[in-house]
What we know:
By secondary structure, the protein is mainly α. Helices cover 67% and strands 4% of the residues. It contains nine helices and three strands, in the order H-E-E-E-H-H-H-H-H-H-H-H. The chain has a three-stranded mixed sheet with strand order 1-3-2.
Amino acid sequence: MNQDQVKEILLQxxxxxxxxxxxxxxxxxxxxxxLYKPETQEIILHNKNFKTDNQLIYTAIHEYxxxxxxxxxxxxxxxxxxxxxxxxxxxxWTKFHQLLTVAEEKDIYTIKxxxxxxxxxLTDQIRNxxxxxxGELMLEFGKLLSKAHQLCEAANIRYEDYIDRVxxxxxxxxxxxxxxxxVQPDPAIGYDNMKxxxxxxxxxxxxxxxxxLIAGSSPDTVRSMMKMKSEEIDEKTKLEKEKTRLEKSINxxxxxxxxxxxxxxxx
Length: 267
């Protein structure tokens, strides 16, 4: 696979309105597999790092994600190169995983776990014996902390002191575990994802986010989806409040206008 073929593949995944180049360094790098130069819109791939085209395409998509987000920023700034900021943000990982999904749908890239029977078996062990079991343990842990809280109150003991100096746990960790246990997410998604799910107050949205995770969406993708929904709700709430204020002002002005008209009529 050559540089032109890689560029053509990237454009098949998603079009770009900003011209970019793909360059094979012809070298092996122990630090990075590739990089993106936003100033010149250049994707550089250390092609000697890869054993297969599939591995190369993964890194190419990674760097192309940087390009697409750079393109988005250039649109906002009317072509002025934005200041350097943190590049591997939640927005980046969300976009990257979306592009990987498209690439898989188009048979451009595959993670190929199923082609390694040993890795497939190990993946099942990790999911069932560790992620799920750890999630189940945390649910039980939360129930025990809740019971400890009740017993502390019954014994006139400050629960916070019990957490700090008896269990020697960070309070934030204890609160997170108790919150997860109260919501009871599916332990199959793992404790870290359970914490994220427990942070969603609306039950319907919480279930929707959990379903996305179970269906295969990455945590970053789900987090981004929930953020966008939250922003949409905030915008709706903002407009509704503004509408209420305007209606109130209009009613007050209408009343004032009627009084003025009456006053004028009596003169």
